Amino acid sequence: MNALRAIVVDPSAPARLALKEISAPTPSPSEALVRVAAFSLNLGEVRGITTAQAGYCPGWDLSGVVEQSAADGSGPQTGKRVVGWVRSGAWAELVAVPTQNLAEIPEKVSFGKAATLPIAGLTALRALEKGGNLLDKKVLITGATGGVGHLAVQLAHHAGARVVGVARRPEGESFVLDAGAHEVVVGEQILSASQFGPYHLIIDSVGGKVLGQALGMLAPGGTCVNFGASEGAEVTFDLRKFFLVGGATFYGLIIFYELARRPGAEDLASLARMIDDGRLLPQIAIETSWTQTSEVVQKMLNREITGKAVLCIE
């Protein structure tokens, strides 16, 4: 195959990213070649760009059309519209994707909306699973205006939970309420969230002081799931408020570990169907050409984006 274009790390370029030609991928027998239509950005991959070596091809989430199905016969067949993820290299015109990471998407679901699902949607879903049955249970979600948090609020609401979301800025309050939260706590101090607790499940992506305060709000047998540290990696908390509750659990979630244990294709398909029938509404703050990737990445690093950013390949 001929060379193709991709976003690669170039330390001399704006945001250390440039659109360049790379060699076409050679798929393994269990990989399909996907012609990418759109990809979305995640904070983890974006932060990784700041230290990545020149020539590295970033990107996790993608959506598009299967151009060549897997040689072993697994996964979606040629011509199918799909959504999926890879560990790196999704920001390219053509990507080899393991079929266990791919799911077909309904015709009415746009490539842009589908592209928001893989890492953010699966992280939200797997984090909520740690709480088991959420019907009429109290759930606290920090970082509720982020890509994962916003989806987690919606999914928890549909599971019948009593959802309390945390928004860092006042303008995020209505955004979180519209997603299905029953209450919203605004600011970087969340002690006021205790009035709505204690919580059966806490989902945290903020770390720092927010996580330290949240760990004192668990109900007996409750679980706190952390998957990020946007505020800070160092946490101070009162152990007595944690262990004296009884049966409290603190779980560290990294989505790639979870997906290695249980592939996400079926969950991705379920999330796509939820978009199709209107139960899940990804909040896309920016949807633009992939030629604007550097500018959008910088906005994300500056924390100027509420919701997801999607880049489309023309």
Automatic annotation (TrEMBL):
Residues 12-311 form the Enoyl reductase (ER) domain. SUPFAM superfamilies: GroES-like, NAD(P)-binding Rossmann-fold domains. InterPro entries: ADH-like_C, ADH-like_N, ER, GroES-like_sf, NAD(P)-bd_dom_sf, Zinc-ADH_QOR/CCCR. The keyword Phosphoprotein does not apply. Keywords: NADP. Gene3D superfamilies: Medium-chain alcohol dehydrogenases, catalytic domain, NAD(P)-binding Rossmann-like Domain. The keyword NADP applies. One of its GO terms (molecular function) is oxidoreductase activity. PANTHER family: QUINONE OXIDOREDUCTASE. This is Oxidoreductase.
